[in-house]
Amino acid sequence: MQLVIVESPAKAKTIEKYLGKDFKVLASYGHVRDLPPKDGSVDPEADFAMEWELYRDKQSRFKEIADAAKGATRLVLATDPDREGEAISWHVQELLAKRKALPKLVERVTFNAITKQAVTEAMARPRELDQPLIDAYLARRALDYLFGFTLSPVLWRKLPGAKSAGRVQSVALRLIVEREREIEAFRAEEYWSVLAKLQHDGTEFDARLVKFKGVKLERLSLGNAGIAMEAKAAVEAGRFTVEGVETKPVKRNPAPPFTTSTLQQEAARKLGFSAQHTMRLAQSLYEAGAITYMRTDGVQMDMSAILAARDAIAARFSEDYRPEKPRMYSTKAKNAQEAHEAIRPTDFTRERAGAGDEGKLYDLIFKRAMASQMATALLERTTITLRDATGQHELRATGQVIRFPGFLAVYQEGLDDSEDEDGGLLPQMKAGDMPAKRAVEATQHFTQPPPRFSEASLVKRLEELGIGRPSTYASTIQTLRDRAYVRMEKNRFFAEESGRLLTAFLERFFPTYVAYDFTAGMEDELDVVSDGREDYKLLLARFWKDFKPKADEVMEKLPSEVTEALDEYLADFLFPPREDGHDPRACPLCASEGRAYGRLSLRGGKFGAFVACANYPECKFTRRFAQPGGEGEDGAEDGILGQHPETGENILRKTGRFGPYVEMGEGKEAKRASIPKDLDDFGLDWAVKLLDLPRIIGAHPDTGLDIEANIGRYGPYLRHDGKYGKLTNTREVFEVGMNRAVDILAQAANRGAAGAGRGKAEPIAALGPHPTSGGEIKVMPGRYGPYVTDGTTNATIPRDTKPEDVTLEAAIELIDARAAKAPAAKKGKKKAAPKKAAPKKAAAKKAPAKKPPAKAKAKTGAAAAAK
After folding, report:
1. Does 536 qualify as catalytic in the annotation?
2. pLDDT digit string, tens, across residues 451-477
3. SS in 3 state form for 318-370?
4. Of the residues 55, 137, 286, 293, which is catalytic?
């Protein structure tokens, strides 16, 4: 028996069908192990040794792989053809060797598409694991770990309210924050345009004033209403004659087939998909054998695919649409490796694949790939110049005509933040013609600030700068949203104040590590490692040599020093100039109550930064900064959202005791659904989806019972046969497919089985030592909800606080408050019980209830003093 390892069960099922009975194909369900989230997982003092840990929910899964490997004659590692796929294969091989279950013959195969031909050809051409590619993975994983686990504790202690900082995440956030600063610094300028409405031979067209009083007009030349009205009057009074007609042929060539980045951009522009949703759909299409591998920098297609596309073009159109020679592409993106083909259909005779959003994405991929091999589009651009009798004033009209559509018959690439070219038809005209003047308009305009990033334009900018890898952009962007550093409004990124504060902190104290050239240069170095030209540990040593001392230096600073530096760095943002010319730092409360020296500055608190007065405690003025949930729900948006498309009933948005919700119907029959906080674009469509829940995904392939997606008291979830699996966000309730749902339920079942045994629950986060007890404070999942513990005292996290948002300071406060209440003795701590038993009894007899808390406080104070 030959054992083949792939990542997903869907991929395993398809490949096993291609290979036959002599092969057993098992799925690893992605990565099988990782660096445990604790200090010391990467040890710079031990030559950057890494400590790996098998995922708890993968233990039974990997046991199945190990058992099968013991009886196999050959192990074939057939994970994805990229760095992550190579890493998964390496982890599987290392773990099997550790368990002494590794067959004598171990080979690696890769294929760019899950088709019978691609798989069988790959099996006939095995190779060994690519060690340089594995080294590049190890370097990247260690870099991200060292960056995050070194910098995050600095943030927790010196920047209250900050949650984390990632190597690529921080730079992406900086792009968004810098765009916000550009928009704030922008000052709009007034300008006017003058447009003549003309007509000739029954065809109306517009002509713009381009020369006034003999001077060519620039964009801002007509800067006020006075000169604009003067120009308008001149056009109204003038008799304009056609001076010349210029017709110029224009050629447009098709864009290359999709890479990971361009697919994310176009899916965002044309379909409104997030990068994460796009990659999830592409993964399903790839596993179904419909498209080639979806994580790629390459824009080239295999010659057999090119010929197939050309045949499809000839069959669908005339020979005129198929160019004489195949088109060849090369990428211009920085750091592109072009290790794989572009994303394309595996079969150009298959015009449709998948359903719903999958079908839409496949259609986009199919059309883009086909168009990339089609003929050039031929257009004709016409420019008509008209001049008045004085020769001082000039109008210009432009138009465009498609003479031969070529690739435009199938596909046209979308654009970000660009105005459309003049594409209207113009009448046939010649020199000397005098078109009729119907009207003249003078229109006021204002210059616009640079647009905020959309997901498409952010991905494009990251790729242009060479930051990160396209395959990681989806998770990077999602992390920024999950941490509440940014928010989305109308598909644009807005920097939250917490994101601005974090960016300012990193720019002020770690400028090198959020510099675009540094992060892009690190990608170059990682590429050198993946090419086998450098030892990855040398790269890590160079990074650590400078980064660790810098982190230690900032850690030694007092919180007040950090706050003072940020106060100065953020002065323009926190205290912008006032229109009345008064000091922007002047405290309004002190001014109203007659106190002198009331100046505002940035302060740090247990739950984040805020602005306060220097006269504290006499002056209690504060202004919140970066406090989540600061904007209260006032019900201003309540009302009728619209009608349900099927029933026609009104859907109302309301605000209740527990927040906003939607309602359809009346009385006991009314349907209601809470509005989740993670829906930035909530509207009628979302209301209909929420009211139509639960969603049936389909029948489970093993049991035949329905898998249901829904939203409950504790968030979005899956349910099947009385068992549950947690979903990450609301959108996933409506997007998750069968393969992903089966995987989530299987992992949930494994976690449940592990929890039933002797295994301990994994911490959600490790925050640092408790200042008094010295115990490591951890955020833990519990049967009755998440809690924090220092190993001695457990304290429940408030329901309105996400466990991942708990800071070290907040955890200490919760633990100290819980300890002060003298809880009943717990099992396993019998030695402490006698000391706490007496106060508990005394409390029952109405003895002084505050005695135990007083002791606890005294003990805490003594310990603090000793330190």
Report:
1. no
2. 999 988 998 899 888 888 777 888 888
3. CHHHCCCCCCCCCCCCCCCCCCCCCECECCCCCCCCCCCHHHHHHHHHHHHHH
4. 293
